[in-house]
């Protein structure tokens, strides 16, 4: 299974990490701060979820509309970048195109063709799902904050 995670508002509480000013420094286990003092909080149990997903053999990717360098530095500051097999972070809103090219890359690199029904897309907003369904197919969508409030709630949904 491919698990695609949005970042802003999903993995962390900030809604536009690209608007911040690295370098980031870790101020607590779940909090980083940019060079101007803006704080970003990692959602509780993200690490537990990512560890479970890796241990379960899932392919994990980001699927984020952001500036790559800023988002990557935040992932590194939280020390969660290594959990992801792929970092799909691009400065445009077309997550369907991001996902399309990722699926082609996975097929080329791993020889694995991932069907839409084997994709789980997790995002706090549903604004991209119509284009994904139209251009990729019926991926499973979990809306963070609506369908689940905590990353630990996702595990039984994907284990069933």
TrEMBL record:
Top-level taxon in the UniProt lineage: Archaea
Coiled coil spans: none
A UniProt-annotated Pfam family: Acid_PPase
MF GO annotations: phosphatase activity
Descriptive protein name: Magnesium-dependent phosphatase-1
Organism: Pyrobaculum aerophilum
Taxonomic lineage: Archaea, Thermoproteota, Thermoprotei, Thermoproteales, Thermoproteaceae
